[in-house]
Structure formats: C-alpha cells, structure tokens
Amino acid sequence: MTLEATKTESFYDRPNITKGVIDIGAGIPFGMEPVSNPSVGIGGVYGTWGESFSNENLHFFIEERLGRPLPAAEKLNLSDLGFRSRHHIPLNLTPDEHSRLEIEVGAKFLSEAIKACNWEPSEVAGVLIGMSAPLSSDYLNQISRAAGIPESALKVATHKACDGSTSSLHLALNPTLPENLQLHQNIAESLYGKKVLVGGIEGLSRFVGSSHDANALQLFGNAAGVVGVIPGKTMRLIAGKSHEAFDEDGVLQVQMYYPHSKQKADGYNVDVTEPSANNIRVAGLMHEPHDGSSIAMAGPMGMVKLFVRTGVQVVRDVYAAYQTRLDELGMAGKSFAVAIVHHANYKINKLKEKHLQKDGIILPMPWLLSDFGNVSAASNMIAFLRKLPQLKPFDHVLIDGFGAGTYYDTLAVELGG
C-alpha cells in the first residue's frame, strides 16, 4: 500500500476545486472537484463542506464539543492513521439549518455529478446513495427533486455505515444479491443499461455531534462522492460478494437514525423495504450505544481486529472467483489496475494488504484520502474518482467496502470502452 502524496494539507487548497460559501449560519464553506474520463464513459464529483481542521488545530474543536480538555492519552496519532485534515460544521446550527444545509449540499453533488457525466437530469434512471445517518427518511427524495431528477427515477437509500456506497454499487451491478432477490423490482435488472448515480453523502460532523467518544470525534468528518455509471456498459460486474457478521461485542457501536425492525433472521440483519413508490431502503442492523449517543468505538487497534480477519477472507473469496471467471472468459493473466479500499484508517488497510500478500494476492492499494479523515460511505467513491483519470478502457478494478455492523461488499468490475 502506498500513501500517495498530496501537495496541500487542506482539500480546499487543491487546484481545480470549485469553492463557495453556503448562506447558513455565519456561512458554511464548501468545495467540490468534478472528474470525468470520457474514454471509459464515467464521471462524477467529490468534495466536502465545513471548516478544514488540521491535525494540529483539531483538538480545539474537539474540546469545545466535549466540553473538557482532551488529555494527551486520548489524542490519536492521526498522521500514522493516514489523515492530515477533516471538515466540520459549527456546533450551534439549529435543526432547520442542518436540514437546509444538507439538502443544498446533497442536491449540489447530484447536479454536479450529472454535469460531469455530460447527462441531463431527466436522463437519470436511478440514484443509489450510502448514508450512515440520513438527515430524514425522505432525504434522498428531497435532494433528487432539488437536482431536477424525475420522480420516476428509482431511489435506493443504503444504510450500512461505511459500506454504504460500495453496497449501493453492488446492488446496481449484481442481480443475485440477497437484497435484489427479495424485491419484486430487482435493482440491478431494472437499472441495466440505464444512467445511474451511485455514491455516499456523509454529514458526519452532524452525526458525531451527539457523541462523547474522543476517537470518533477525531477520526470522522464531512464528505461526499457521487459517480455516474451505466451498468453493463460503462461498468460491468465480473465477481462480487456481500457478507455480514454482527458485531455482538459492540466494538463499533452506531445509532440507527433510520427505520429498522431490529430483528435478526437466520444471520441476515439487513431490512429491505419499499416505503413508497420508486423508493427502496436497504438498512443494516447496528449494535447501538446504550447511552443514546450516536457512536462509541474502540481504539484504532480494536478496529483492526474487528475488520481485518473477515475483510481479508471476503477479498480472498472474490479474488478466487475473479480468477475463475477470467479463465472462463479466456482472459487468464489479466490483473487489477487498482484496488479501491475503504479508507477507515491506514493501519487497517496496510494489515489487510500484508495478509493478502501472504496468499500471493498482490493488489495495488493506494491511500488517497489524507485530506478528508474517515468519511464513511463517501470514502470508496472519492478514492475511485481520484484514480479515474488514470484508468483505461476495459481496466479491471477491485472495490472493497466494509463498515460497522459489520458489513462487507467486495466486487471486481470491468470498465467500459
């Protein structure tokens, strides 16, 4: 795994960023970068909103949220975890201001992703977005409507924490997933060959605001990444696997700010519901904090133990299925151009890489999000967009998502040409 260097510490200082201020409170800065690669037919946009806090000045913000000093023993070595900055909104926004802010932000990302693909809003047939803590149960409808997307477009809200965007992409590409098989409208089959937006929009600064967990407050921040694909044309599934293993010990506890039956059935913890016409909710069961706070987590090594063993096995399984499929297609010897792995923290990914290498699985796994922090479901889409300009027609890409719950989605895809 390589820690790819960036010349700036703050995302807002990067070249080619469209910047502005949203007129809420004292003004909320935002920035986004459109990306497109016409040779593979894919485009999108990523970015963030809120003030940028470096590792050096973050503790002032955290202490204001905690209402106490942050002892040296509780300060994480964020550079070693792969992060140099992250973005937060003010502490004093009202519920109405939170609502107006995130609807405006969400609509901006959808609109700019459509432009990056050179599409019209009326052409979008589906919007699949991962959100750890949605602003409201109809948030996806609100931002789609504000972006001019037709009411007839299928909206899929995926609530599987950090795995949300990769799970959304998997739903759009793989008709054999359990979620698709239990729906009367199979998402992958209904969206095949159509223009679809897939991504993660994470207002995590709002989400962690009710937490007293110093680790979570240091790690998480706002961001979004939205990609436009045409399933079966600009992106095709080669192999994929979805897996879940409930976090009985509560190593990473997350409050469910979305509807869920809170029932476990035969090891299957995902509720799939259709709350209204053209709307599907895919909601993962979480081990919730007992004190009612939004999130409570173990330290970085606890996260390593939670995700690495199972995550490595899921990648192994998909890699084996990928090799088998290559043989069937007469493409033996082809390899992945890049592996896009969720950026939970650098140590997790480095250890996953080490275990995979012991099995002879060598994957190019660049670390690409130093200027964001852990941005949950936005992570995989931002990382993909940062590598998109370098990808070529018919390249193969491994996309590896994992998150609290715990949930895992890993897929091997081929880009269009």
Our Rg estimate from Cα atoms comes to: 20 Å
Number of helices: 11
Average residue-wise pLDDT? 94
Strand content: 25-35%
Question: Order of strands side by side in the largest beta sheet?
Answer: 1-2-3-9-8-6-7-13-12
Gross geometry? globular
Q: Order of SSEs, N→C? A: EEEEHEHEHEHHHEHHEEEEEEHEHHEE
Uncertain runs are: none
Distance from first to last alpha carbon: 28 Å
Number of strands: 17
Biggest sheet statistics:
9 strands, mixed
Helical coverage, percent range? 25-40%
Helix/strand class: alpha+beta
Report on this model:
29% of the residues lie in helices and 27% in strands. The protein is of the alpha+beta class and 417 residues long. It contains 11 helices and 17 strands. Helix 2 (95-116) packs across helix 3 (139-146) and helix 9 (300-329) packs across helix 10 (346-358). A 9-stranded mixed beta sheet has the order 1-2-3-9-8-6-7-13-12, with helices on both faces. It has a 4-stranded mixed beta sheet with strand order 10-17-16-15, sandwiched between helices. The two termini are 28 Å apart.
Task: Please outline the helices and strands.
Elements: E1 18-22, E2 28-37, E3 42-49, E4 51-54, H1 58-66, E5 85-88, H2 95-116, E6 124-130, H3 139-146, E7 154-159, H4 164-173, H5 178-181, H6 187-191, E8 195-202, H7 204-207, H8 214-219, E9 223-229, E10 235-244, E11 252-254, E12 270-276, E13 279-284, E14 295-297, H9 300-329, E15 336-341, H10 346-358, H11 378-387, E16 396-403, E17 407-415
Parallel strand pairs: 6-7, 6-8, 7-13, 15-16
Antiparallel strand pairs: 1-2, 2-3, 3-9, 4-5, 8-9, 10-17, 11-14, 12-13, 16-17
Helix pairs in contact: 2-3, 9-10
